User: Which sequence fits this backbone?
């Protein structure tokens, strides 16, 4: 067997950044990936000249210039700005909650009028300083109308629970902006890589010191891999690594339903959230709008996103970072410390929600820690 320095399990962003940087430092790396493609959840592929985000809408945003410069080595980014809209029972509202939304809801025109309206609703709801659940927390932050129309149904679908049964801490703050600004993120840099995300990971892994094999599950040969490779970077599920011996960590999963339509423009925006309780999906993505309509003029691809309960074998999209799971994860990290030659990284290895810029940062730190 070729003398590799590292086995990287998972060809997502964490694994790819680690492999790339380790290769630049002269290390030999084998990457294995259980899916039949690289790039993990940021994977995009082309249909009718349109880049389809297979695992949900991905918008790159950061205020860290170093990370922005880093990722720009691998792709040219367009100026896409995330401005989703909400569809509540057929009426459209701008997001995040801003002066446009307030005008659509109440006809208010000035910041003071909108502030008065929200304050009035908060005080009428008589929520104490200690909100008992997510519903109370949300009303105390944005008032009753925004909560009822734009928060409640969406959140309940997302978590599969009633807002009154969800803990208040899930919503520490809700973005409220007293300007006519529909830009969802406050970050300095934002965009979508022209030609999709997969090329980024492709270029990271395209190095003579890196060998990649897709369609290979680490757990089919775990003991052998651990014996054969001096160091392992593991970006799969930490509880699965330990054969769930302390119990299962919980996740929320998603089901994506994609459709190719013979129209140029289906919904006029990349992301439309459906915020009522009755519509079973949370949002529809129309992929061509991430690249300003690039692609076939007679075709479009849309994807409906349905939140679903996670069970073993499903794709674990979002960690459920409540007290029970965070405690359990901590116990797994104690076991991890005893696995001398294995580093656990990425959203599944570290059981936390990472945005792309954060996962790049975490992978660069891991390389720094390993190799200086
Ligand atoms: P990722 O899951 O991408 O990679 C891990 C890889 O390991 C996977 O390819 C998996 O198949 C593989 N693997 C697991 N177990 C294995 C095993 N046993 N053997 C072999 N391979 C194995 N971020 C952002 O900045 N802006 C955004 O708009 C969004 N949007 C968004 C939408 C949705 C729906 C989700 C779920 C997430 C986002 N994100 C996001 C977050 C973004 O997807 C995330 O930061 C990165 O994909 C994380 O990269 P990782 O490498 O950690 O995991």
Assistant:
């Amino acid at each position: 067997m070729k003398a590799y320095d590292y086995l990287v399990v998972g060809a997502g962003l964490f694994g790819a950044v680690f492999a790339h940087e380790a290769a630049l430092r002269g290390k030999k790396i084998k990457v294995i990936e259980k899916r039949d493609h690289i790039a993990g959840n940021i994977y995009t592929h082309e249909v009718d000249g349109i880049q389809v985000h297979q695992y949900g809408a991905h918008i790159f945003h950061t205020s860290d210039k170093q990370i922005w410069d880093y990722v720009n080595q691998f792709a040219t980014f367009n100026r896409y700005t995330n401005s989703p809209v909400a569809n509540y029972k057929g009426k459209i509202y701008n997001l995040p909650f801003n002066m446009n939304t307030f005008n659509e809801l109440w006809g208010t025109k000035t910041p003071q009028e909108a502030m008065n309206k929200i304050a009035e609703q908060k005080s009428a709801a008589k929520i104490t300083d200690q909100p008992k659940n997510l519903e109370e927390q949300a009303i105390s932050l944005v008032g009753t109308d925004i909560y009822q129309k734009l928060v409640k149904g969406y959140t309940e679908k997302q978590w599969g629970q009633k807002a009154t049964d969800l803990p208040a801490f899930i919503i520490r703050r809700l973005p409220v902006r007293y300007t006519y600004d529909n830009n969802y993120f406050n970050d300095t840099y934002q965009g979508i890589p022209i030609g999709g995300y997969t090329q980024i990971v492709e270029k990271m892994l395209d190095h003579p010191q890196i060998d990649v094999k897709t369609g290979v599950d680490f757990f089919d040969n775990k003991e052998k891999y651990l014996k054969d490779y001096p160091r392992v970077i593991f970006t799969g599920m930490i509880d699965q690594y330990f054969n769930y011996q302390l119990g299962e960590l919980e996740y929320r999963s998603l089901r994506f339903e994609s459709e190719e339509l013979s129209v140029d423009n289906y919904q006029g925006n990349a992301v439309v959230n459906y915020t009522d309780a009755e519509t079973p999906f949370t949002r529809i993505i129309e992929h061509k709008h991430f690249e300003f309509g690039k692609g076939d003029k007679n075709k479009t691809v849309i994807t409906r996103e349905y939140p679903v309960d996670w069970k073993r074998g499903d794709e674990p999209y979002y960690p459920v970072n409540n007290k029970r799971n965070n405690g359990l994860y901590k116990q797994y990290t104690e076991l991890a410390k005893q696995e001398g030659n294995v580093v656990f990284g990425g959203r599944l290895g570290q059981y936390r929600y990472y945005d792309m810029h954060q996962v790049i940062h975490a992978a660069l730190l891991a390389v720094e820690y390993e190799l200086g």
